[in-house]
Each structure stands twice: as C-alpha cells, then as structure tokens.
Amino acid sequence: MKANSSIRDAYMKLYSDDNLSHKLNEVTFEDIFNTLDNYGSFYKLIGVYDSLIRERIFSMLAVVMDVEYEYIYNQWLECNEG
Rounded distance, CA 40 to CA 3, Å? Predict the structure, then answer.
C-alpha cells in the first residue's frame, strides 16, 4: 500500500467480510492523513460512521504513512470527533 492508494480498495482486500466496506468513499491514504492534519472530519471524508472501520483504517494509515498509531489517533481527537 502506498500513500496514493485507495483506502476502499485496501480495506476491502483486508476485510472482505465487512459488509460496510462497499460504502467507503474513494479516497486515498494521503487524503485521510491530510484531512486529519488539517482538523477535518474523518467520518465525512470516508463516508462511513463506524468505530471498528475507523480503528482499522487508522492502523493501516499509520503503517502507510510511517507514523505511530498514536499520532493518527491524537490528530483525530483534535478534530473534535473523538
């Protein structure tokens, strides 16, 4: 997975049994990272309001962007969604 990879495609590949995965918007890992860094709405960006999906995406995002999971999570908390 790369920063410009589709989160939806990557998520569906890893979690094919998740019945909400097809509802994810077509955004990239970089889109999500930049949205969090700019205090935007993660849930609005991805199009699904589910905490399990959020946690899975945050874990994937941390690996792709080569940052600690806590960095991603703390950015999300700063967005007033946490």
Answer: 18
